[in-house]
From TrEMBL:
It holds the Pfam family Pyr_redox_dim. It is an enzyme of class 1 (oxidoreductase). Belongs to the class-I pyridine nucleotide-disulfide oxidoreductase family. Its EC number is 1.-.-.-. This is Dihydrolipoyl dehydrogenase family protein. Residues 354-459 form the Pyridine nucleotide-disulphide oxidoreductase dimerisation domain. One of its GO terms (molecular function) is oxidoreductase activity. Gene3D superfamilies: 3.30.390.30, FAD/NAD(P)-binding domain. SUPFAM superfamilies: FAD/NAD(P)-binding domain, FAD/NAD-linked reductases, dimerisation (C-terminal) domain.
Amino acid sequence: MADEFDVIVIGAGPAGENVIERAVRGGLSAAIVEDRLAGGECAYWACVPSKALLRPVDLAGEVSRVPGLSLGPIDAAAVLARRDETVSHFDDSGQVRWIEGVPAEFFRGRGRIDGPKRVVVSGEDGGERVLTARQAVVLATGSTAVVPPVPGLAEADPWTSHEVTATDAIPERLAVIGGGVVACEMAQAMHGLGARQTTVLVRGGRLLGRMEPFAGDLLAESFAEAGIDVRTHTDVTRVERPEPGGKVTVHLAEGPPLEADELLVATGRRPATRDLGLGTVGLKDGDYVEVDDSMRATGVSEGWLYAVGDVNGRALLTHMGKYQARICGDVIAARARGDELSRMRDLADGYGAPQVVFTDPQICAVGRTEAAARQAGFRVRVVEYDLASVTGAYLMGDGYRGRANAVVDEDRKVLLGVTFAGPGTADLLHSASIAVTAEVPIDRLWHAVPSFPTVSEVWLRLLEAYGL
Ligand SMILES: Cc1cc2nc3c(=O)[nH]c(=O)nc-3n(C[C@H](O)[C@H](O)[C@H](O)COP(=O)(O)OP(=O)(O)OC[C@H]3O[C@@H](n4cnc5c(N)ncnc54)[C@H](O)[C@@H]3O)c2cc1C
Ligand SMILES: NC(=O)c1ccc[n+]([C@@H]2O[C@H](COP(=O)([O-])OP(=O)(O)OC[C@H]3O[C@@H](n4cnc5c(N)ncnc54)[C@H](O)[C@@H]3O)[C@@H](O)[C@H]2O)c1
């Protein structure tokens, strides 16, 4: 195996893998280093298993709204078995074969930067290998869960996203700290799969605090109906777990302590940049790696270091990491040819990344919320519509509940943001992403006729609510 490559990528998650594919397509040689499983967090402990756990819960919600259909209890063991299939039983051989077929060289081991364009790979056998890059080194090491410094919390060995997505058993009583995406998705999955008592402890005033307020409110209503206890404005002050794996007691700033069989911490992420040798090139270990719109690290003057995916902190989403990776691979190949390829730049992040929260109801958003748009100085008008009044949504089942809004830039008459909250809206989001990112004028959008009777008729209703 050679020790010199045009491009060396550290981290074989979705972002890293897409960099090598594009760089090789651009005529370069590439190597990729991975210390756990090729495919990354996304494939084994995040997107894929979490969605496998949520799918039956989502479907059960759908079935329960259609008279004439009935559903027995969910067989959690069968769901967990299917989850195991979706993560290939933690076997990455298929993924490694894909990498080799790119073709790129795969190195199993921990990568670390050791000065400009040098990467040291420490293997499991304790051996070290030095790789050098002719063109670029790309960091694609992702992120890890944050465990806040609450007394007793770390010692209680709580679940993070890793343990909850890989669990072999559903806890009877689950306490969740956090009100963001992981907390909401996993609270609903565990509850739907059989947890008897699920309590979500939210520090702020509502679930999904970064999204439109109506989205978190609708989700909280759905949680309350399902028997999930959401406690807002709740601070955890101390945690006790005398026996490893035993009962957990969560002390709160107000009210009696909460007892649970398991505790999930879902309070955000930190970049996986510790012990990565960033100090050898003038950056700081532990920080997000700041990049420009071509994914080049701004803090390294010679311009050979790039960072894509969660590690650059731009948008902690798989599809955004892969988008950045396509840009990065193309840019590196172009620069190697002496071309700047200026059309390949991150434009999407500036508009606001699309995101689907796979709960029931689904919460889907792209672009800016009303509050974010106003804060950024736009002159906006917001239109809202009750999704239940759309025939396509009404036909999906009794008691359909949902809401949508669009944030209109009053000066340019284009959309700055769109949010849909309701069952069956996930695949509707891309229409909004196109409208927002392509800055389609709303009087042109009016001519994009939604099919009857689909949920997408909400587009017409929103434009009518605007006055078109
Ligand atoms: C529970 C959960 C559910 C999620 N669901 C979704 C979803 O539905 N949709 C969505 O878009 N996003 C989702 N996300 C976010 C998504 O998982 C991340 O945005 C995505 O995984 C980031 O991809 P990445 O390639 O940057 O990093 P990762 O997927 O984290 O991959 C990084 C890889 O680098 C490796 N690595 C790290 N350091 C080194 C080193 N020094 N040497 C060698 N290898 C190293 C790691 O082992 C890992 O394999 C979810 C996250 C969580 C936690
Ligand atoms: N479907 C999806 O797209 C999906 C699913 C899961 C995760 N993700 C991505 O993964 C990332 C991580 O998700 P997450 O839910 O961990 O983070 P998050 O940033 O979405 O939510 C973190 C939550 O924890 C709370 N919090 C932070 N510090 C706290 C503390 N000390 N005590 C109590 N509460 C605290 C915050 O107020 C917030 O409610 C997100 O950025 C998200 O984009 C995406």
